[in-house]
């Protein structure tokens, strides 16, 4: 297991304070970050679905997401 | 100031914000709901990924759920487990298994819905709030509830960081005694 020093949690705290102290500027940066993540995932799935093998993998991924009774 | 707020509301909403507001608006016509867990922290600026938004709804009847489901379908949402409202209600929701909705033909994001399962969930719904700092027109479980659940029940590194983030954002504004009381309830109802 990889251990982390304090720099990660310090970054979490630094960003939280930035959000708290800059109510009108954090949202734009944050939305770009959130949208980028989702768009990257969607682009990946789109690329994956371009081949027969990729479509099979995609189908497995989708099935794994659905919880069976 | 108002102009800045309006501009933010119109232009800065991300994919998750828009998806959640659209879904929640439909649900609110049928029952009370709350958004819980990761999206609460993300809506307050936490920079981390999630692919689903968690929603708890009141324990509604099969008929009310059927009407809700049909309304969601009419608005372009589809449920990943089944198209059949009765199946979703009988085989999933009443067995405390969540169901997942996406927009038609899309795979992300998802909304994971479940029924309130105990007094703690009912209390969360009863004390639900709109949180102006998020800029979103949806109901969340209270900040105290979210912190207590993350620190006492969920406890992963991600959850602990979410709780820390919320504690910083709401520094001096949260009821720390209430958080401890909720943690006691969690121990009583979920950890025994």
Fold topology:
The complex is a heterodimer of chains A (69) and B (192).
Chain A: H1 7-21, H2 26-48, H3 52-65
Chain B: H1 2-11, H2 15-28, E1 33-36, H3 38-43, E2 52-57, H4 62-74, E3 77-79, H5 85-92, E4 99-103, E5 110-115, H6 119-126, E6 129-130, E7 139-140, H7 143-154, H8 157-169, H9 176-190
Parallel strand pairs in B: 2-5
Antiparallel strand pairs in B: 1-2, 3-4, 4-5, 6-7
Helix pairs in contact in B: 4-5, 7-8, 7-9
Give a quick precis of the structure:
Chain A contains 3 helices and no strands. With 69 residues, chain A is mainly α.
What descriptive keywords fit this protein?
heterodimer; A: 69 residues; mainly alpha; 75% helix; elongated; B: 192 residues; alpha+beta; Beta Polymerase, domain 2; 5-stranded mixed beta sheet; 7 strands; disordered N terminus
Written account of the structure:
By secondary structure, chain A is an all-alpha fold. Chain A has a domain at 26-69. Helices cover 75% and strands 0% of the residues of chain A. Chain A has helices spanning 7-21, 26-48, 52-65. The radius of gyration of chain A is 19 Å and the shape is elongated. The model of chain A has no long low-confidence stretch (mean pLDDT 87). Chain B is α+β, with helices and mostly antiparallel strands and 192 residues long. Chain B has a single domain (13-190), classed as Beta Polymerase, domain 2 (2-Layer Sandwich), CATH 3.30.460. Chain B is built from 9 helices and 7 strands, in the order H-H-E-H-E-H-E-H-E-E-H-E-E-H-H-H. In chain B, the strands form 2 sheets. A 5-stranded mixed sheet of chain B has the order 1-2-5-4-3, sandwiched between helices. Chain B has a two-stranded antiparallel ribbon with strand order 6-7. In chain B, strand 4 (99-103) and strand 5 (110-115) form a beta hairpin. Mean pLDDT of chain B is 93; it is low at 1-8. The A-B interface holds A 9, 12-13, 15-17, 19-20, 23-24, 26-28, 30-35, 37-39, 41-42, 45, 62, 65-67, 69 and B 4, 8, 11-17, 42, 44-47, 49, 51, 80-81, 91-92, 95, 97-98, 100, 107-110, 133, 135, 161, 164-165, 168-169, 171.
């Amino acid at each position: 297991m990889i251990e982390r020093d304090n720099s990660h949690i310090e970054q979490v705290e630094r960003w939280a304070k930035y959000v708290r102290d800059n109510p009108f500027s954090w949202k734009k940066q944050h939305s770009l970050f959130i949208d980028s993540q989702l768009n990257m995932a969607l682009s990946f799935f789109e690329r994956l679905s371009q081949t027969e093998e990729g479509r099979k993998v995609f189908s497995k991924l989708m099935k794994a997401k659905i919880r069976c009774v | 100031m108002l102009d800045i707020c309006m501009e933010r509301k119109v232009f800065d909403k991300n994919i998750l914000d828009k998806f959640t507001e659209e879904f929640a608006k439909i649900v609110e016509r049928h029952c009370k709901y709350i958004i819980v867990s990761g999206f609460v922290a993300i809506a307050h600026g936490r920079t981390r990924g999630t692919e689903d938004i968690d929603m708890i709804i009141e324990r509604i009847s099969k008929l009310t759920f059927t009407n809700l489901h049909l309304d969601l379908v009419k608005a372009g949402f589809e449920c990943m487990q089944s198209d059949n409202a009765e199946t979703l209600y009988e085989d999933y929701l009443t067995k405390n298994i969540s169901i997942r909705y996406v927009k038609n033909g899309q795979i992300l994001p998802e909304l994971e819905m479940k029924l309130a399962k105990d007094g703690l969930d009912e209390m969360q719904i009863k004390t639900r709030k709109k949180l102006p700092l998020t800029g979103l027109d949806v109901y969340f479980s209270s900040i105290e509830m979210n912190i207590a659940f993350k620190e006492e029940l969920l406890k992963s590194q991600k959850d602990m960081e979410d709780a820390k983030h919320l504690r910083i954002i709401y520094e001096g504004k949260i009821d720390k005694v209430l958080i401890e009381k909720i943690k006691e309830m969690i121990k009583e109802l979920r950890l025994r």
